[in-house]
Amino acid sequence: MTRFVFLTLLVLLNGCGAGWRRTPDLGLGPLPRRQQAQVWYAGRSERWHAVDVRVDSVSGVPFLKDPACEGCRIALPRAAVDSVRFGNPSAGFWKTFGLAVSPVVLLVVICTFPSQPCGTID
Predict the structure, then answer these.
(1) Number of other residues whose CB lies within 10 A of the CB of residue 112
(2) Which run of H or E residues covers position 112?
(3) What is the mean pLDDT of residues 17-29?
(4) Would you call 84 exposed, middle or buried from its count of C-beta atoms within 10 A (0-12, 13-18, 19+)?
(5) How far apart, in Å, do the first and last CA atoms of the chain sit?
(6) What contacts 48, CB < 8 A, 6 or more positions away?
(7) 57 with 77: CB under 8 angstroms?
(8) What is the pTM of this model?
(9) How far are the Cα atoms of 44, 66, 70, 113, 114 from residue 74, in angstroms, in the given order?
(10) pLDDT for residue 122 is more than 90
């Protein structure tokens, strides 16, 4: 039974994540500066923000750099980009945190307010 509970919790935690999603059409223009994107090209991926999609190119700033850093911007020809996925790892973290903490809070509430006095036997 313990293995089943552990496995179920593990599956639920994996479901929270960043929520990366692909979009069939990137559209044109700049995306919100803090929108995170995984840009796949040449068999690898990089995480960017401050992404700008143009007719012939896709550019963005590496995620660990300030989105205002124009000198850090990387540009790729649009034909070289295999796919782009968008996500929000910060929201994924808080969803996972909530999922992990809520059972503990529930147990504390249940154990703090028992339905019948402790020590009584029916």
Answers:
(1) 7
(2) helix 89-112
(3) 75
(4) buried
(5) 26
(6) 36, 37, 39, 60, 61, 62, 63, 74
(7) yes
(8) 0.60
(9) 15, 13, 9, 57, 59
(10) no
Instruction: For residue 64, give the amino acid letter.
Output: L
d(CA 102, CA 122): 30
Please state, in angstroms and rounded to a whole number, the distance separating the CA atoms of residues 99 and 17.
11
Output the pLDDT for position 3: 60
Residue 40 CB neighbour total at 10 angstroms:
15
Task: Give pLDDT tens digits for 52-111.
Answer: 999 999 999 999 999 999 899 999 999 999 889 988 766 666 666 777 777 777 777 777
Rg (CA), the chain: 22
- Cα 57 to Cα 31, 93, 96: the distances in Å are 14, 31, 35
